[in-house]
Design a protein that fits this description.
Number of strands: 13
CATH topology: Outer membrane phospholipase (ompla), Chain C
Strand content: over 45%
Shape: globular
Largest sheet: 12 strands, antiparallel, barrel
Mean pLDDT: 87
Radius of gyration: 18 Å
Low-confidence stretches: 1-32
Structural class: mainly beta
Helix content: under 10%
CATH architecture: Beta Barrel
Distance between the termini: 26 Å
Length: about 280
């Protein structure tokens, strides 16, 4: 798949998501319908993004294009709880290849149940992930695919303050392949969003400085921690609270630890790059 085709698909997906967000019913206070807002720094959070990365890894390319298409859509909602469906597709491309080889694609679909009371929010999610090597990568390197697929359940509890959020929890992987995949996952993080806008673009858009740290430790990698750090500018509705409503972002992203890219999950990767994103 060529890089320009990826960009066009991402742009089309963002336009569709923007239109969908425009017709969502807001909740009191100008926030979005989500009771548990998407994680800012988690590489596997279903969102729309395109990132250019410089990476160090045993098998991945030194220059990567990483894209994601995903969203969480509420199905049934009460005053302080919601049942939703979430889905995401995450792909990585070799930007140094003349054919921009597709390296890996992860597919995630799940059912999150969220609950919020005051400053505490909880997300319980049952989900499935499957991962696949790109055909061109397999043809050029003669790589053998690992049949990585599993079901998992995870639980996160977050404390939300006006300008920051801290969260923690874990997960358990079951019904998995390979058979020796070890099941435990610990997960936590911290986010900051500037209270007052740092930038104004007319009357309809404001920009805030944001930063996030996400840490994920996996039993399968002897509890090694994958550290993900992001910081940058988030553009959104001036009437919406920080971290709510539909918004665009321009972020610098850094990562080190076990690769978050399914077929390479037992490799160690370090990367640094810049990207754009959209949260409906």
């Amino acid at each position: 798949m060529r890089a320009n085709a990826v960009v066009l698909q991402l742009a089309a997906a963002m336009v569709v998501a923007s239109a969908a967000a425009a017709v969502q019913a807001p909740v009191p206070g100008g926030g979005a319908t989500a009771l548990f807002q998407p994680l800012l720094a988690d590489p596997k959070e279903p969102q729309f993004f395109a990132t250019y990365l410089w990476a160090r890894s045993p098998r991945l390319a030194s220059r990567l294009g990483s894209v994601g298409f995903g969203q969480t859509i509420g199905l049934v909602r009460g005053p302080d709880w919601q049942v939703a469906v979430t889905a995401g597709v995450f792909s990585q491309f070799n930007m140094g290849s003349s054919t921009t080889d597709l390296l890996n694609t992860d597919y995630i679909v799940g059912i999150p149940v969220t609950y919020r009371h005051g400053t505490l929010a909880t997300r319980l999610r049952l989900f499935h992930q499957s991962s696949h090597l790109g055909d061109e990568y397999m043809a050029h390197t003669h790589a053998q695919r690992v049949d990585l697929t599993f079901q998992a359940v995870d639980l996160l509890v977050a404390h939300q303050a006006p300008t920051w959020r801290a969260y923690g929890g874990g997960g358990y992987v079951f019904a998995h392949s390979p058979a020796d995949l070890r099941p435990g996952v610990l997960h936590g993080g911290f986010e900051y969003r500037q209270a007052r806008p740092w930038l104004r673009l007319g009357r309809s858009v404001t920009g805030r400085l944001v930063a996030g740290l996400d840490a994920k430790s996996m039993q399968d990698r002897q509890w090694q921690v994958g550290w993900s750090v992001v910081t940058g500018l988030e553009l959104g509705d001036p009437l919406a609270a920080p971290g709510s409503g539909s918004r665009w972002s321009v972020l610098v992203k850094g990562y080190t630890g076990p690769a978050p890219y399914g077929e390479f999950y037992r490799d160690h990767v370090s990367s640094l790059g810049v990207g754009v994103g959209f949260t409906p």
